[in-house]
Amino acid sequence: QVQLVESGGGLVQPGASLRLSCVASGFTFSNYAMRWYRQAPGQARDWVAGIHTVARVTKYADSVKDRFTISRDDTRNTVYLQMDNLKPEDTALYYCNAYNPWTSNEHWGQGTQVTVSS
Questions:
Q1: Which of 100, 113, 114 is nearest to 35 (CA)?
Q2: Using CA atoms, how far apart are residues 117 and 16, in angstroms rounded to an integer?
Q3: Using CA atoms, how far apart are residues 104 and 93, in angstroms rounded to an integer?
Q4: Phi, psi of 66 (to 5 degrees)
């Protein structure tokens, strides 16, 4: 049974930091590129960051570049999103996504809420 379980969200003030985690099970984690998306109320789901498999190449949306860092630990089947200097516009439901570039299989988590407000 495939599962992606996100955690680490919460309510923080502007300028604070959070680290999101996403634990995967039910598939070969190391074969999947891992990505974070977010969706604010009334908005489309947007891609935030991604990390490739073996090469560990990372990419970021312009809106989070230099503030967010994605990383993965294949020994723990976990992907992280370190979020620093959070802004109110970062408020959203954050989703973990796993994508296999060879088979095009894709899996989604249920999301974790991040709210940035003073």
A1: 100
A2: 10
A3: 24
A4: 75, 0
* Nearest C-alpha neighbor of 89 from the set 46, 49, 32, 34: 46
Q: How far apart are CA 83 and CA 64, in angstroms?
A: 8
> Given this model, what pLDDT does residue 25 score?
97
111: amino acid identity, one letter? G
Question: How far is residue 4's CA from residue 106's CA, in Å, rounded to a whole number?
Answer: 11
Per-residue pLDDT of the chain (118 residues; tens, 9 = 90+): 999 999 999 999 999 999 999 999 999 999 999 999 999 999 999 999 999 987 789 999 999 999 999 999 999 999 999 999 999 999 999 999 999 999 999 999 999 999 999 9
Which residues, 6 or more positions from 5, have their beta carbon under 8 angstroms from its beta carbon? 22, 23, 109, 110
**SS3 per residue for 17-50:** CEEEEEEEECCCHHHCEEEEEEECCCCCEEEEEE
